[in-house]
């Protein structure tokens, strides 16, 4: 380890296919790091039902402490029960560490044939409030109320994040997505904050689209969009829609970013039906790890991994079933490892 730049990373493998895809990603990062002078110290923790079985806590105290100390975590999918059970681990961690910006790039991979080639969209989603605040109560039997929380602070800082990113990376347009024609106070506040921030970035074109129209417009012509700036719920829905343009959720990375900490995770779920069958596609978590490497200012390592991913997809010989191939998780990971050693992947 002498001479290496070391990074302490909290690792949450997750459940379902989580351990398989996270295992593949860790192996690839280790090899890429070894070639670029980067080392990793993994602090591994369970979360969700698996953690509760061992510690009687869905998110163990030690996991919280690890993220607080390391500032960076890589997280596989964790099952969230539908309509009951424990609260979403994802939402709980985002709120705990005030990870207010959910960053989801949706970019086509070479070699994959889709109805929409050459997609390059960025979804910037507010990550801590809206209906995901989880404030619900039963007014009377049979009548339940969920509270939508929109604040000036939350709206302003996510808009600032979107425009700052756009300026830094040469993006041309930001669309604020809303339903202010109906929710005039909550979504109206969101738009007022977005407009105020937009005034400070005259070089970036600012537009506003109603969320239901956005869904139609995306399907008709996704190329009219660049950065989609959204509240929490709309961003969750639109990121799943946009993932279909490039081949599905198995390909889309995600980053949850705050002032102090960051958690990088795949957008997809835990897929328990294929767990343990060597069928899962690790691309989403692997590309999330690439975002993590950029966050850590390890550009060379990030590019080495990303170039290898793209080479495997360009060749199309070792792809998983969800993108039309017949290979398994291990074979795909091995192909990425081999690509990192080939002259094409080394710049």
Write the layout of secondary structure elements.
Layout: E1 5-12, H1 18-36, E2 38-44, H2 49-55, H3 61-70, E3 72-75, H4 89-96, E4 101-107, E5 120-126, E6 136-140, E7 143-146, H5 152-168, E8 173-178, H6 186-198, E9 205-210, H7 211-220, E10 227-230, H8 232-246, E11 253-257, E12 262-266, H9 283-295, H10 299-315, H11 329-341
Parallel strand pairs: 1-2, 1-3, 3-12, 5-10, 8-9, 8-10
Antiparallel strand pairs: 4-5, 4-11, 6-7, 11-12
Helix pairs in contact: 1-9, 1-10, 1-11, 5-6, 9-10, 10-11
Give structural attributes.
alpha/beta; ten-stranded mixed sheet; two-stranded antiparallel sheet; globular
The count of strands amounts to 12
Instruction: State mean pLDDT (0 to 100 scale).
Output: 94
Whole-Å distance between the termini?
24 Å
Strand content: 15-25%
Q: Are there runs of 5+ residues with pLDDT below 50, and where?
A: none
Helicity range: 40-55%
Structural class: alpha/beta
Read across the widest sheet, the strand sequence of neighbours is: 2-1-3-12-11-4-5-10-8-9
Largest sheet: 10 strands, mixed
String of helices and strands: EHEHHEHEEEEHEHEHEHEEHHH
The whole-angstrom Rg is 20 Å
The shape, in one word, is globular
Number of helices: 11
In short:
This protein is of the alpha/beta class and 347 residues long. It has 11 helices and 12 strands.
Describe the structure.
There is one protein chain. The protein is globular and about 55 Å long. The chain is built from eleven helices and twelve strands. Helix 1 packs across helix 9 (283-295), helix 9 (283-295) runs antiparallel to helix 10 (299-315) and helix 10 (299-315) crosses helix 11. The protein has 347 residues and is of the alpha/beta class. It has a ten-stranded mixed beta sheet, sandwiched between helices. The protein has a two-stranded antiparallel sheet with strand order 6-7. The chain has helices at 18-36, 49-55, 61-70, 89-96, 152-168, 186-198, 211-220, 232-246, 283-295, 299-315, 329-341, and strands at 5-12, 38-44, 72-75, 101-107, 120-126, 136-140, 143-146, 173-178, 205-210, 227-230, 253-257, 262-266. 41% of the residues lie in helices and 20% in strands. The longest helix has 19 residues, at 18-36.
């Amino acid at each position: 380890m002498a001479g290496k730049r070391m990074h302490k990373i909290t690792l949450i493998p997750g459940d379902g296919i989580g351990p398989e895809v996270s295992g593949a990603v860790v192996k690839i990062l280790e090899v890429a790091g070894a070639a670029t002078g980067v080392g990793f110290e993994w602090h591994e923790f369970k979360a969700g039902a698996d953690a509760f079985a061992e510690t009687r806590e869905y998110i163990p105290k030690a996991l919280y402490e690890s993220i607080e100390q390391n500032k960076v975590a890589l997280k596989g999918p964790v099952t969230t029960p539908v309509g009951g059970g424990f609260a979403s681990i994802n939402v709980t961690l985002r709120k705990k560490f005030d990870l207010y910006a959910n960053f989801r790039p949706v970019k086509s991979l070479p070699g994959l044939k889709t109805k929409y080639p050459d997609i390059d969209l960025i979804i910037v989603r507010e990550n801590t409030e809206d209906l995901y605040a989880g404030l619900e109560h039963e007014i009377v039997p049979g009548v339940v109320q969920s509270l939508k929380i929109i604040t000036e602070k939350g709206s302003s800082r996510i808009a600032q994040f979107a425009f700052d990113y756009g300026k830094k990376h040469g993006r041309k347009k930001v669309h604020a997505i809303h339903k202010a024609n109906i929710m005039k106070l909550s979504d109206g506040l969101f738009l007022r904050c977005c407009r105020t921030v937009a005034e400070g970035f005259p070089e970036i074109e600012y537009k506003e689209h109603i969320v239901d129209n956005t869904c139609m417009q995306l399907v008709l012509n996704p190329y009219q969009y660049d950065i989609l700036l959204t509240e929490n719920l709309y961003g969750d829905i639109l990121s799943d829609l946009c993932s279909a343009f490039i081949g599905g959720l198995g390909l889309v990375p995600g980053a949850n970013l705050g002032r102090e900490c960051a958690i990088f995770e795949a957008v997809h779920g835990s897929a328990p039906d294929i767990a343990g069958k060597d069928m899962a596609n690790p691309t989403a978590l692997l590309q999330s790890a690439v975002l993590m490497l950029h966050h850590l200012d390890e550009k060379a390592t990030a590019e080495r991994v990303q170039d290898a991913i793209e080479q495997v997809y360009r060749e199309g010989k070792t792809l998983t079933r969800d993108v039309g191939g017949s290979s398994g998780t291990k074979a795909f990971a091995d192909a990425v490892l081999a690509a990192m050693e080939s002259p094409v992947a080394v710049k």
